[in-house]
Design a protein that fits this description.
about 120 residues; alpha+beta; four-stranded mixed β-sheet; 5 helices; 4 strands; SH3 domain-binding glutamic acid-rich-like protein; SH3-binding; Glut_rich_SH3-bd; cell membrane
């Protein structure tokens, strides 16, 4: 399974740039393999991302903005969903991955199981 992060390399928005860096930096720091899919340089990436963000997660007007995160073809969420998953130590579950032993998320899951 490959995590795909759809980004815009030439975004004029500093907010979007920071969000993209935040997601990719977290994934890299935690040794989670991912593929960067640039929607600014590749029209096919832009089209695929826009078509595959579920209706319930699209903005009321306009198109979904990067970063958008997928596990292969399965939609995981946008930056806001990623941010909340990270705050809850649930990023691996958010990404559809198994948390590695010893990670905060694995520890939190084992505590829940013991209750």
């Amino acid at each position: 399974m490959v995590i795909k992060v759809y980004i815009a390399s030439s975004s004029g928005s500093t907010s979007i740039k920071k969000q993209q860096q935040d997601v990719m930096g977290f994934l890299a720091a935690n040794k989670i393999e991912f593929e960067e899919c640039d929607i600014a340089a590749d029209e096919d990436n832009r089209k695929w991302m826009r078509e595959n963000v579920p209706e319930d997660f699209r903005p009321a007007t306009g198109n979904p903005l990067p970063p958008q995160i997928f596990n292969e073809e399965k939609y995981c969420g946008n930056y806001e969903a990623f941010f909340y998953a990270r705050e809850d130590n649930a990023v691996y579950a958010f990404l559809g991955l198994t948390a590695p032993p010893g990670s905060k998320e694995a520890e939190a899951l084992s505590k829940k199981m013991q209750m």
